[in-house]
Design brief:
Blueprint (H helix, E strand, L loop, with lengths): L2 E6 L8 E7 L9 E3 L1 H8 L4 E5 L4 E6 L7 H11 L10 E5 L8 E7 H13 L6 E4 L11 E6 L2 E5 L5 E5 L3 H8 L16 E6 L1 H6 L1 H10 L2 E6 L5 H9 L17 H5 L3 H43 L10 H11 L9 H13 L5 E8 L2 E8 L2 H13 L3 E11 L2 E10 L3
Parallel strand pairs: 1-4, 4-8, 9-12, 12-13
Antiparallel strand pairs: 1-2, 2-3, 5-7, 6-7, 9-10, 10-11, 14-15, 15-17, 16-17
Helix pairs in contact: 11-12
Length: 419
Amino acid sequence: MAELIVLRLGRNPDQQVDWIVADDDGTRRSPPAAGTLAEAAAAVRGRPVIVLVPATEALTTTVDLPVRGGPRLLAALPYALEEQIATDVETMHFAAGDKRESGRRPVAAIARESLDAWLALLDEVDIQPWKVIPETYGLARIPGTMSVLVDDDCVVFNDGEDLEFALDGAAPSDALVASGHLEERSDDAPPEQSGHLVVYCSAADEERLSHDWIALRHELHSVDINLLPDGALPRLAVTVASGAGVNLLQGRYGPKADYGSWLRPWSRVAILLVTLMIVGFGAKAADYWRLSHEEAALRAQFTTAFQSIRPTSGDDILDPVAAVNSIKRSLGTATTTPVFLASLSVLAAALVSNDAVDVEAVSFRAGVIDVRITSPDVETVGNIQRAVSASGQFTASIQSSDRVGERINSRIQIRESGS
């Protein structure tokens, strides 16, 4: 479990501050300490800091708004609470917490001037708070039970549900009356035995408010007083350390993403990568320039040589390969792998099944085989033509057939399929 520091500010800037070490499970890890802000900063030692600000400086309430959260919720809060705030809402800062079981959302409002002053004091001693929470939220909510924290002349109250506030210069009974859970009555009115109250206070406050406890025990079902030998801070700290409370550091006071610190460890790698990319693109550009000039020189040489063979050609040959193939075809040279032997093999296979055929002549030019044969009838010529075409590699076509005496003279042309 991670340790953190809970730092409680005084009501005046020149007052000393209190701090204590706790963990995020709400367990106290050290005795409370007191001193100046500089001394508190020395005790931080890299741990997250939760700052508690005076409960009487913040308005704490709940709202039920049909907005999920984020900037839209923060923008709607001033309009939703303007009737509860006596000052100009433009001078106030608003923050909201997660929705509670009742569906209502806790909200804290505080004067921007006060929050700015506290943050400036913390910044002077190099304390960057993780959270800033009003003390009101340090009094844990117990379902079905009212709770009161008495700290000198300040009383913090919650009803275990959605009501929580702080009163200055008041008694616990005043807080119960203000909450509506205890109506003021005359001395001769019958007591109403209802409600449970848990009180946290020092021994001095218990004695000072002894008459209030007697009156409350006549009005309520039970009053349970818990003494705080180390003051209020340990009680407040364990509650906020476990995640309770509304963090005031939202909106304009929210954490800013420090992209520079994220990227700084990778700066050298990034510089090296950019350098390699520039060198790589430079080398590619140089190769492209060199190859383009070589291509232009070769094209000029080819054009000169081609025009010496065919003077009627144009000044620029767009497709040198096609031009060479054209010369090969005119010279009777195949432009692809020689097919003469393969065609003879197919022709021989066709003649085996037609042994009454005599081959008179075979010629090969520009990939085309011309075969002159004699056969006893036209049907035999057709059998040879179909047998050659059936191979799939070559296509045979009968060019001519003439009867000479008792024999048929025919000319068959064989070429590669698809040519």
